Amino acid sequence: MQTEDQIFGIRAIIEAVNASKDIDKVFVQKDANSELMQELLKTLKRNNINFSYVPVEKLNKLTHLNHQGAVASIAPIKFIGLEELVEKVAEQEKAPLYLILDQISDARNFGAIIRTAECTGVDGIIIQKSGAAPVNGDTVKTSAGAVFNIPICKVDHIKDAIFYLQGSGVTTVAATEKTENNIYDIDFKEPIAIVMGSEDKGVNPSVLKIIDQKAKLPMYGTISSLNVSVACGAFLYEAVRQRL
Fold first, then answer.
1. What tens digit of pLDDT does each residue of 35-93 get?
2. pTM of structure
3. What domains can be seen in the chain, in order of their start residue?
4. What's the chain look like in SS3?
């Protein structure tokens, strides 16, 4: 069965995936092991759809109807392909500004980042299909509706997206404390993709190996890091300042 923002029931979710519905994430009962559930898991893995194992209590909170051990959240937006995004942005007269989110998992952080990105003229946000925060009601609310005004692209692997952007003439800059380079030494006037890492681990080390430049924000307090949405805002507004 399906509501406005959910699909529940194993067979219904399988059919939705096969029909190419924009499913953002699937919650699967962790102790369910029926043949039909195994078919669902194979379908999700084959289509690289984000899913997580949760206790049945979590599923019961998501819906009071018979979920059969699986509930899927439907994305309220239509995602755009990476190639289509780059082609559309290339038609503009200004230097592209992309935002790549490497495993941002909190929906409210995601929403706050989307809101700032829309306000600063980001051309598109790129996230990974697995491990990323869902585009759900919390995301929409925290973004103040900005999620409907900015293209969001889901890719199989962040590194492949970085290679593609680099091949398209875009410089990638990772926000990381693992560098001596200051954010204010980076040229954000050229075509840029800013890479922000997860709340707890930052940018993945394997991603840091392939990006073009690293930059950090100067920190003068006793706390050594900022909330990722705040740090993202600082990076984006430095790009705005330079481009004015």
1. 999 999 999 999 888 898 999 998 988 888 888 899 998 888 889 999 999 999 999 98
2. 0.85
3. 6-74 (3.30.1330.30), 82-243 (3.40.1280.10)
4. CECCCEEECHHHHHHHHHCCCCEEEEEEECCCCCHHHHHHHHHHHHCCCCEEEECHHHHHHHCCCCCCCEEEEECCCCCCCHHHHHHHHHCCCCCCEEEEECCCCCHHHHHHHHHHHHHCCCCEEEEECCCCCCCCHHHHHHCCCHHHCCCEEEECCHHHHHHHHHHCCCEEEEECCCCCCEHHHCCCCCCEEEEECECCCECCHHHHCCCCEEEECCCCCCCCCCCHHHHHHHHHHHHHHHHC
